[in-house]
User: Fold Protoporphyrinogen oxidase from Sipha flava.
Amino acid sequence: MTIAILGGGLAGLSAAYYLKCEGGIKQNQSIKIIEADSTTGGWIQSWKDQNTNAIIELGPRTIRGGGKTANNTFSLIKDLGIEELVHNVGIEASARYIYANGGIHQLPMSAWKALFSVNQPFTKPWIYYVLRESFQSNKNNIKPVEVEENNDESAYDFFSRTFGQEFADYLVSPLLCGICGGNAKQISVKFMFNALYEAERKHGSVGLGLLKEKIISFLNREKVKNSEQLMKPPPSVYYLEGGLKRLIYALHIKNESQGVDINVNTQCTKLNFHKNGKGATILLSNGQQLECSHIISAIPAYKLATLLLDNPQHTILTQLLDSIPMVSIVTVNLTFDDPNVMGPYKGFGVLASPLEKLSLLGIIFNNYIYGHSDHVDLTVMMGGYAFEKHFVNNSKCLSEEELTDIAINHVKRVLNIQTIPKTCNTRILHNCIPQYTVGHYERVAKIQKYLTNKRLPMTLVGSSYAGVSINDVIYASMTAMRKLCKR
Assistant:
């Protein structure tokens, strides 16, 4: 029988890889990846600009180091034999900026400056917000919660309540725009900032709770007898030479070498589970039917929901899957010949505060990330949760030419670059990023409970459920496949 993986993006390719690594395939089983597009990788697409030879990324361009999910990704990169492609981001890419109150402001780069200096657009040093949260928690007699509760709130409400509205407006809101194109007033704090949420829930204060957890972690740390057994940690932020598509290529080739059947230009149009829970039938766009012993869905939740529309007995599951919203993003890559056109701004990029009421999410300074010094390479990100508001008129999206003009005007306004760009490359990524709105944890738990109770032969992976970053997606596929292999 066949184990079918729906979707050949990073989640699907990782799932196939780990399924093979964990030894979860019996002799009479095979793995088949079904991908609707002409190539694998999903939103991870890289190509070279013919005019500047710069690598352009359609989706993410860097990977963060630090933590178990990051270590897992770096271990995968080593196992695939592409460690030599790893490069630290340029040394000048360390600064981050916020566009607020009509101006661009650099976020503090040291803890001392952040805590004890006034850094615009903030009107007070950050120590004020930290002390405010701690004293306010004690004043309000917020008590630790010993049992798990289903209480959740938006990230905006949480940070406004604890650290103050400026923290929510000038730090958290722009940050979520950059991470997932999301509205902080809708995004779940329990999911996106779980450590802070749990610190307050368990200890009554975010700041004091984090300090206690740090002390407990230090006291309970495991002593490694042989330091040579430790894996070399990944860089704090890095990219792959030639683009992140190189990771997709490596996974694709590795899977094929291990006997995984990868089918591109093939779409799943309908999914029916067998009544006995022993398998499922997939109807493909070429008219063929595929009998499966198990399905691993690596496609967005809303797409999976459409495949189940003809299954009235699973209406609850369809509704739950469809309740995970998605947003669309516009990316506009602009290059300039003059390397000095950026003026004083050097860093990773700038994020826009939603208070500015712009269609702009942020501008990424690619030339500093990749260490280019002979030209300027920017990626303007627009839309997100406000995509329809800014870019859709009478149910019709603006043209690429109109979107390019809007992006150029954002660059003029934010970075004061009046020069006409040498090259422009505009892409619209429809429904590309899931939104982890308030109650997301409980929503996903209900989906998993439904699959278990109904004994449906399906495992869910991908960014719709457990995180949007490269590290999150790979780690979720790994843990899901380990769990599947133990059944």
Summary: The longest strand covers residues 423-434. The mean pLDDT is 91. The chain has three domains: 2-42+248-324+437-486, 122-140+150-221, 326-434. Residues 165-180 form the longest helix (16 residues).
